[in-house]
Every structure is written in C-alpha cells, then in structure tokens.
Design brief:
The chain has 205 residues and is mainly α. 67% of the residues lie in helices and 0% in strands.
Length: 205
C-alpha cells in the first residue's frame, strides 16, 4: 500500500493563505521558505513540491489577486452611460479591496508591481476600465488618451482605498471622499460640453 499523500490541495491552499498574509504584513525579506512552511503547519519540502519554490508561491499569490480583481471588474455590466460605468467599476475596485485586504496589499503595496501603463493582457484588471474609457472617448464623453485617463482614475482610486484600508478614514468620511473624488476625476476628463452639463451634478448615481 502506497504512502498517503500529504502535500495535497489542502496544504497548497494553506500555503497560499499564509503567504498572502505574510506578504501583506511583513517585509518581503522576512518571508522565507521556512517561515512559510511553519506558518502553514507543513514542511519546507511542501513549498518546493507544490510550487517549485518561494518565488513561484509568491507568483501564485499575485496571480490570484490579479484574477480575482479582474473577475470582479469584468462582472460590472455595461450600460449606455460610460461615466456611470466608470463609477461602477471604481466602486467594484474599492469593494474588492475592502473584501480582500491582504491580496490588495500584495498586489498594490510594493511586494509585487502592477503596471497599468504596460501591455494589457486578456485577463488584466485594467482591461475593463480601458474598455469603458475608450467607449467614452469614442462617444465624445471623455477627452484624452485612454491610458492617461486610466492612470489618473487608478491613482485616485488607489489613494482613497489605501487610506481607507489603513484606517485613516472612518466609514462616513471614506464613503464621502470616494464619491466626491471619483466624480471630480471623471468630470476633469470630460469634453467641454459634457463638463458644463455635469458641473453641478454627479456623473453617476
């Protein structure tokens, strides 16, 4: 009778969970194969047999973060109003960050870089945002280069969400800040005609 398999999917998930938490809360240099194995209640051999090594395990964590954010943003339905869609995408981004704080920190906190100005793959979280922006430019709702508009919105989003996750904003302030800053950013990229119509209103409910 063969020996029971110990390095199975359960161990794999424990390692991913442990790596996610460690990468979000510790300096990267302190995250070692030994500390990961100890935190997951397994052996260092499991890290190598299941992932190939520490770098591959970190890559798995980042890939899951990217896939999760992409899935949530892709689930936002498109409407006839590009600005409303962009606001909805911003809200989905914020919601994902609040519900997956460790993954958000791993993805955007410096452990792994995420470059929204680079080439956009088929499962890149920036894809849904760029699609809505490009539609807004085509329909003369937005004026500017799509990548720069996306970067502007992402910088705004990242700032608000990061402050919120750090506890720098209470719930009411975070909600009001998110709403006002996203609306202001969107208005700033609209065409003159659209800007005049939105000057005293929000571009999305």
């Amino acid at each position: 009778m063969g020996r029971p398999r110990t390095n199975d999917e359960t161990v794999k998930e424990r390692l991913v969970t442990c790596a996610t938490e460690m990468l979000a809360t510790r300096p990267r240099e302190s995250v070692t194969v030994r500390s990961l194995a100890a935190g997951a209640g397994t052996s260092t051999t499991a890290v190598y047999s299941l992932f190939g090594g520490k770098d591959e395990l970190i890559r798995e964590v980042r890939n899951r973060a990217v896939a999760g954010l992409f899935q949530d943003l892709s689930a936002v339905p498109a409407s006839a109003e590009p600005l409303a869609d962009l606001y909805a995408l911003a809200a989905a981004y914020r919601r994902w960050g609040r519900e997956h704080q460790h993954l958000y920190t791993v993805l955007f906190g410096g452990v792994q870089s995420f470059d929204p100005s680079g080439a956009v793959g088929s499962s890149d979280p920036i894809g849904p945002l760029l699609s809505a922006i490009e539609r807004g430019v085509t329909e003369s709702v937005l004026a500017g280069e799509a990548t720069f508009i996306a970067l502007s919105l992402w910088v705004t989003l990242h700032g608000v969400v990061t402050l919120e996750l750090a506890g720098a904003l209470d719930a009411a302030t975070a909600e009001a800040t998110f709403r006002s800053t996203i609306h202001a950013t969107l208005r700033g990229w609209t065409t003159p005609a659209v800007f005049r119509s939105l000057r005293h209103t929000d571009p999305a409910p």
